[in-house]
Amino acid sequence: MTLTRLEGTFPATSPGSTCVILNGTMTNTGATGTFGNYNGLGAALTHDAPVTVINIQGMITQIATGANFTSDNISNMTGYRCTIAHSGAGTITNINGFSCSMTTTGGAIGTYIGLNVAGSSSTSVTTKAGMLIGGFTGGSNNYGIWMASNTTDVGSGIAFGLTPDTYLWRGAINQLLTPGDWMLRHVLCSSVPTVSAGAGAGSSPTISITGTDHGFTVTLTTGTTATINATLFTVTFGATWTSSAPSIAWNAGNTVTAALYGSAGKVPFTSATSTSTTTFTSGTVALSDSTTYIFRFVAMR
To answer: Which residues contact 175 (CB under 8 A, 6 or more apart)?
Structure first.
């Protein structure tokens, strides 16, 4: 049996029934037995009786095509659609196309899922997406997905796997964490560093830099009277590293630079690194004048 009510309040008193409420309330406080479904649209559903209910559903809809649908077409099939238009001069504090919240002080709950999108194995669908989000522009702050929590654990992150075993979450400002290892094909960087020569490179040297903050090459042609224990050059990162300075490693980019390893005291070194710069310094023996050296660097943290 199905009970349908367009407004008002009524008790569900028939075991095994389906109660459908449109713009009303339904309260069960005394019926016994097993109820099939409570379905509501614009409704307040309250179950306060010691009986079993198969489903309590705030809104349910089913859309299907039949065998006679052969030659025509349907542009869109939408189970739930919300369109909001605001053209008045008044202020709206919040607009929620879909809002779900949970508060519980009762017995145990197995799983709480705010939005559950079932997967699909159909091969007749060209493109599938569990969630499609359009671009947001024009606001002071625009986000496709906003994880609105300042907690620093997986509770504010993303879990992967049918039985979750891989996680990604916010560790701090501008920082993502995972409890395991990162496996990446390549690390790409768009921040471009700059370089300036110091006294250790001699008088009127020429210097250039290519690459990104993660990996860059410095080509230095020394001037005259290169000096010892002095700055050869300083690299300024295109973007400041967050939290702490990166680790810097380098190797030779030509045979002249590689030969420095066999010259006692002539090997330069990274003397200082901050979140914004790294400084390369000459050793106890000066570099040769008017000579081109190539240094290749990797910066990681």
So the answer is: 242, 243
Contacts of 130 (CB under 8 A, 6+ apart): 117, 119
Nearest to 212 by CA among 238, 247, 245: 238
Please enumerate in sequence order all residues whose Cβ is within 8 A of that of 289, keeping only pairs 6 or more positions apart, or say none: 202, 222, 223, 224, 225, 226
Q: What pLDDT digit, counting tens, does each position of 148-207 carry?
A: 888 888 888 999 998 888 999 988 888 888 888 878 787 788 999 999 999 999 999 999
Pairwise CA distance, residues 203 & 228, whole Å: 13
SS3 state of residue 295:
strand
**pLDDT exceeds 60 at position 96:** yes
Render pLDDT for 171-184 as a digit per residue (tens, 0 to 9).
Answer: 888 888 888 887 87
What is the Cα gyration radius of the chain?
A: 33
**Which region, left, alpha or beta, applies to residue 221 given φ > 0 means left and ψ of -120 to 50 means alpha?**
beta
Contact 252, 297 (CB under 8 A): no
- Given a cut of 80, whether residue 92 has pLDDT beyond it is yes
Tokens of 243: 């939290």
What length does the chain have? 301
Question: Dihedrals φ, ψ of 262, to 5°?
Answer: -95, 5
